[in-house]
Amino acid sequence: MAKVLVTGSSGFVGSYMVEHFKNTDVELIVTSRTVTNQNTVRLDLNDKESVIEVLRENKPTHIVNLAGQSSVGLSWKHKQTTFEVNMLGIMNLLDVVLEYIPDCRILSVGSSEEYGLVNLGDCPIPETNVLNPLSPYGLSKLSAGYLCMQYARSYGINVFHTRTFNHIGVGQNLGFVTQDFAKQIADIEKGDQEPIINVGNLEAIRDFTDVRDIVEAYELLLFNAEGGEIYNVCSGKGLRIIEILNILISKSKADINIVQSTDKMRPADVPILIGDNSKLISTTNWNVKHTIENSLEEILNYYREK
């Protein structure tokens, strides 16, 4: 039986990953830097002794690394922390795996922000596309991915890396557009906010996928991906941010005005990111099961009930 260790289990994607694995035939080791219940093992990837202790004691056969700083916006404010968590953490993990459990399979989760500035003609973006990250977050994930490839080629570690495009769902932190829009609409409906939604750049085009489809792709890659390879995880379809906002507004009876706010604009913003998922599909036979419209409605209803 596979023994799967999940890092960052208390995070947005981590919590969905844990729930997903509970419905599969694996022995699950749930870890997090902050322990909230007796079923979670404390693991801080920036503390190498912690990594040694947990991996030597549990000896997982597979690892899904979801620990990290996941916000592009916050990476501009906390550059050093973003690099420490996203790059040095995976280095500690790889070093300990190499020394104690070299046959372990490792899924390193990266980001479409590694591609950075691309042209419309480059889309859908293949894994071989030129990399030109425009944010500290994108650069930190690019560095982590290169590190994984170096360990795979130099030491033969069975590690593979994703470039995961935008994913959404109930439970994601505020600061991500779908959450910010949905919360503002719910607050307007309750009378807790004036009927004005403050927004940043609405013309950016992104490739959105429901988080439940994302974690299913991760499980399939964990057992089918080839070491030293990089895989896009995405729907292959693009939506402008304004389209996301319009879908959410269409599900409300409130009369809502849209106001662009300078404090929601980033120092640099990638105009378009649409991924090519053909390598993922050919490797795993993965497919999208949840529509964006249904995902957005679930998010909006969450804030209405909250």
From TrEMBL:
Matches recorded under Pfam families: GDP_Man_Dehyd
Listed name of the protein: GDP-mannose 4,6-dehydratase
Residue ranges of domain NAD(P)-binding in the record: 5-298
